[in-house]
């Protein structure tokens, strides 16, 4: 089949426009802030209309001793830190995973939020780390570690990462040290758990959350360094809508 030259040029222009369409812009404040995510892109409507959204305020948790243990199998390996304009996103070397009820969830990435996103009895931590994991069949879990500021207790793991924090959006850097992400976890593995969502667009639901009860420390200077890059990157608390929060101990 033959096309006239103008038609060919038109089709090429349209194809180029389709492949070069920029991704929707979102942030935590302003016209593209968290209260408007569902309007920024129709694919993100769950951010407005979902019934199992995260983060939440943890209160009235019910003890359930039948909840499974979290068995961590994290390797020591390089990570790459990316400044995506909203947070520092750590891309990990494949091989770290956690098993829950016999199911393996591979560690995909982790990121940082200031202040923390999960509230406990209405109080937010000074920072929160979200470790995103995914199973072979696509199920996702988030393991959340809350950090509280302590002027005399800098965090050893963050001390290995912070010198390599990329300062500008779009930049990436690789710390010289190999990292075992297990160093971010508290010694006491008691946790709260509930059914939630990704706390960033597209706010996908069906994500199981495990929030450690014990907090970790972050040094005041470490917190200050991060806050010079991101003043606030926390989604507001979402309505529980009748969801149950359980504690394993």
Keywords:
18 strands, 249 residues, Carbonic Anhydrase II, three-stranded mixed sheet
The count of strands amounts to: 18
How many individual helices?
A: 5
Give the class-level CATH name: Alpha Beta
Q: What is the number of independent domains?
A: 1
Q: Which CATH architecture would you pick?
A: Roll
What ranges have pLDDT less than 50 throughout 5 or more consecutive residues?
5-17
Major sheet description: 13 strands, mixed
Strand content: 25-35%
Could you give the distance between the termini?
Answer: 70 Å
What does the average pLDDT come to?
92
Helix content bin = 10-25%
Structural class, by secondary structure, is alpha+beta
Radius of gyration: 20 Å
Global geometry: globular
CATH topology: Carbonic Anhydrase II
CATH homologous superfamily designation? Alpha carbonic anhydrase
Helices and strands, in N-to-C order?
HHHEEEEEEEEEEEEHEEEEEHE
SSE blueprint:
Elements lengths: L4 H15 L17 H4 L5 H4 L7 E2 L3 E2 L7 E3 L2 E2 L1 E5 L4 E5 L4 E4 L2 E11 L5 E2 L2 E2 L2 E9 L4 E11 L5 H6 L10 E2 L5 E2 L10 E7 L7 E8 L3 E4 H10 L16 E2 L2
């Amino acid at each position: 089949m033959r096309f006239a030259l103008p038609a060919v040029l038109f089709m090429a222009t349209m194809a180029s426009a389709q492949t070069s369409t920029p991704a929707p812009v979102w942030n935590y404040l302003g016209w593209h802030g968290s209260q408007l995510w569902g309007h920024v892109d129709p694919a993100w409507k769950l951010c407005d209309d979902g019934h199992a959204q995260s983060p939440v305020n943890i209160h009235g948790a019910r003890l359930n001793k039948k909840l499974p243990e979290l068995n961590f199998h994290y390797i020591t390996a390089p990570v790459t830190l990316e400044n995506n304009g909203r947070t520092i996103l750590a891309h990990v070397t494949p091989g770290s995973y956690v098993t829950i009820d016999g199911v393996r969830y591979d560690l995909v990435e982790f990121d940082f939020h200031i202040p923390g996103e999960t509230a406990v009895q209405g109080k937010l931590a000074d920072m929160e780390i979200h470790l995103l994991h995914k199973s072979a069949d696509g199920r996702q879990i988030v393991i959340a570690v809350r950090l509280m500021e302590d002027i005399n207790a800098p965090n050893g793991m963050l001390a290995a990462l912070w010198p390599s924090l990329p300062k500008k959006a779009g930049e990436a850097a690789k710390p010289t040290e190999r990292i075992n992400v297990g160093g971010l976890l508290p010694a006491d593995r008691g946790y709260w758990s509930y059914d939630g969502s990704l706390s960033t667009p597209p706010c996908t639901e069906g994500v199981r959350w495990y929030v450690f009860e014990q907090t970790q420390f972050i040094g005041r200077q470490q917190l200050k360094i991060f806050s010079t890059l991101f003043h606030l990157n926390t989604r507001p608390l979402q309505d529980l809508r009748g969801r149950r929060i359980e504690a394993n101990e």
